## 1
Amino acid sequence: MSHLVRIAAGLLIAGLALPAFAADPAKTATTAKGPALTDAKGMTLYTFDKDEAGKSVCNGPCAVNWPPFAAAADAKAEGKYTVVTREDGSKQWAYGGKPLYTWKNDTKAGDTTGDGVNSVWHIATP
């Protein structure tokens, strides 16, 4: 048995848990338009050209059409993922500093109908 396995076994026997590693909030999937970031349900995530670095400007009716990819109030940034605070105080995931959204007209996992809307919405790519 390797040294690391013996330590892990000892911690488990002692009733101590090993530290958990946070999973990325988004997944990567292959769509008809190539790789895309998706939520846990496989719905494509998008970015908005009018957003400012680390800040969403899609509020009100915009956020009804483009629901923000919500983050828990205590979510922690990790790697390329960050958390931005929205105008209403809620939290939203961002990737590479760009807030992430789903599109209300995508009806099933893998849909990419929001790509190119008004020339300012784009598939979020890993």
Note: Strands lie at 27-31, 34-38, 46-48, 70-71, 81-85, 91-95, 98-99, 121-123.
## 2
Amino acid sequence: MKLNTIAAAVIALSTGVAFAQNAVVTIAHVGPTSGAIAHLGKDNENGAILAVEELNKAGVTIGGKKVTIKLMTEDDAADPKQGTAVAQKLADAKVSGVVGHLNSGTTIPASSIYSDAGIPQVSPSATNPKYTRQGFKTAFRLVADDAQLGGTLGKYAVKELKGKAIAVIDDRTAYGQGVAQEFTKAVKEAGGTVVATEFTTDKATDFSAILTTIKGKKADVVFFGGMDAVAGPMLRQMKSLGINAKFMGGDGICSTELVKLGGDAIADNQVYCAEAGGVEGQQKVGMEAFKTKFKAKFGTDVQVYAPYVYDGVNLMVAAMVKAGSSDPAKYLPVLAATKDYKGVTGNISFDAKGDILNGALTLKTVKGGKLTDLAVIR
């Protein structure tokens, strides 16, 4: 009995020491991993998985203690109600931080819950300006917002594409409406003419009525505020109706999946989009290296925002290391004070609202069945 007791004590002691040396820090990722844009949500989730695996392999020490980073993944299905339910679940679980959500429509309502719980939230892709305009100290954004995104595309439609009759469609989501409104505003400021304003939903599959109206207006540019899952079928129906207009959209359509969904309905230099982010010069080396190891691990190309999720996780952990604590109250001020963090998406600094400073946009077109960069704009 005595030996057994000693053995048990030794086991308990050694287990306790191991636990003390390998405390668990939980970071969550949230995105739509089910539904029409699950390919984008999974892309983002994979960025988080890769970051956590690399961090744990390299070893992380916070406050003098070795820690294991645990990734908690949740699906918000791009639905605001599910997004807030997930946010409450994560708040109750007392996670140390959240990287997500993907859509503005889920990110914005969830941000209130994270703010109340004091949990830092880094969104890799939500572009509606409202997200960081609510006064929440816990909200951070790694990409340029719709004011820059829609504004740049609106000016491009008039000045570069020489659009004379421009039609605007949005999917009634927070993202779709936001980017379409900014686009429309920029078109008018550039002296362009919007001949039609139409609406659909993020689950629609038949666009014949609104496209027939647009054809009647002789639109030479069609802008869609929405996601690739809707844009692809829309492009196919445009072709079947004989609409040869240029097709534009924000980062929601700027994916490799759009090229697959649109297929032969997409002519060279017909589709123009802007990804809310971009790297130039020497920074391209790091991005290309990331894309190579991402494909090697997951067997698929990066869709859009996996690199920003990857940076978001690493940035959050770097703030914890610098603060010497994974307690949100202690590392949040360090995260907010981030200046020139070198990520694969470029140098990251935040302004007082939590927006990225000097955020870039990458204008792209589809050529030869592939997304091709046109220019990086800041």
Note: The chain has two domains: 2-144+283-358, 146-275.
## 3
Amino acid sequence: MSYLLSKAPPWQTDIESFTNSVPVIETPALVDESGPAARFAWEEFVYGRIRNPHTRKAYGQAVRQFLRYCERLGRDLSTVTPRDVSTYLDHLDYATSTKKLHLSGLRHFFDVLVTRHVVFLNPATAVRSERLQVVEGKTPEISIIQARQLIHSIDVSNVVGLRDRAIIGILIYTAARVGAVSSLNHQDFFSLGDQYCLRFTEKRGKVRQIPTRHDLRGFIRDYLTAGGLNDSDRKAPLFRTTVRRTKSLTRNRMTPGDMGRMVKRRMRQGGLPNGLSPHSFRVTTITDLLSQGVPLEDVQNLAGHADPRTTRLYDRRQRRITRNIVERISI
């Protein structure tokens, strides 16, 4: 009893620190002025219904921007019309894909307002977006030769080089997203007896287990040994930051941004184009497997796509055919 009275329970401190770390998206003035039901709907929309932090930020910014537009028109939430939504989208100087994101955010937001009886009808439901047909993704592809060049250009005489080689190896040999690689803990690299695997936690909470190639397994184990991490806590981050230029590892997790900057730095050092990114490895791996005749369904499973059409967006074989054709023009 004396412990409870004199000191806050450990879980309370954890909850407070976690709550303080969650980014706060400011409530728009138009929502604030519409009363408690509207404010509740805003928090339900931002924090309750959207679990992905990137989607939460994008939708929150889109709705806030639209509501500022409504303020200039003298509208309140109950008087917004489909015409207002349509005119707003028409005046956005954005790509079609970004306009579709804004419209999606508005539809979700007004759906919650309808559910909470703040407005009677959703003005965004009747508004149609521009048609967008994507046959190939925009992510630049890194060639197989360039990927090999990058791996071989890394100085692995220190733990930082070994760490970076292991991260890039995972991006290449598993086609995982950089966010999933950043989330790896020590317990996510494990042996099944006959092979080692990596367990990724990806978008929408999807958990996937992918076997590691012999060379990738070597990359990871070399890094763990050099960093003295073989006996680390199973829930500790697998890939850690360093103390400035000392090449000493900290206990902090590398974020997706840290890994992205690392890949950019390694590409510059390896003499590769600046436009490449961690996602470029995903494109190359998918295209390479499809070029070898691996069934689309198997490649889809490796990439963790719910729809095969998404996997096809990463396929660059058609671009290669087009280049071959245009090079044959005799003019």
Note: Residues 22-115 form a domain with the DNA polymerase; domain 1 fold (CATH 1.10.150).
## 4
Amino acid sequence: MSENTRNTSAPSHIVWFAPDRENAPWTRIGAQWPTKNGKSFRQVLNVFPTAPGRIFVCRNQPKNGAAA
């Protein structure tokens, strides 16, 4: 992991909630960043789902279309 990756405020991953309903939209519920040692992650949840469903953690995609 490079120093630039560690010092950025943009999260490396986005945390999503997918309800157990057909065609239900996913909801962004938080984000996570790698720790300084690169062996684990720090996660912040803005919302904690109470409905049945699954939580997914997906890599954050750059908005400008640049390769990660």
Note: Residues 3-59 form one domain.
